[in-house]
Design brief:
Thioredoxin-like_fold, single chain, Thioredoxin-like fold domain-containing protein, 77 residues, alpha+beta, Thioredoxin-like_sf, Glutaredoxin, four-stranded mixed beta sheet
């Protein structure tokens, strides 16, 4: 099973992206974790380590995919 992490900040763009992307992944193939960086700022460094520059972003097996621009990570520090 592949690991997928959906990072977001709770903004309308992020919520829409979560509904469209994170929930659309096949649960038999992906273990999806949703991380709200506005509520768990300790994980911002983790997201940066994967190459996430803005949210919403989806990381699959360590590869960051930027979905849309909601907020830069610097705004969440």
């Amino acid at each position: 099973m592949q690991q997928a992490i959906f990072y977001h900040a709770g903004c309308p763009v992020c919520v829409t992206a979560e509904q469209q992307f994170a929930q659309a992944l096949d649960p038999a193939r992906y273990a999806v974790e949703v991380v709200h960086l506005g509520q768990d700022a300790r994980r911002v460094a983790e997201a940066e380590g994967f190459g996430v520059q803005s949210v919403p972003a989806l990381v699959i097996d360590g590869q960051a995919f930027h979905i849309n621009f909601g907020a830069p990570l610097s705004a969440l520090k």
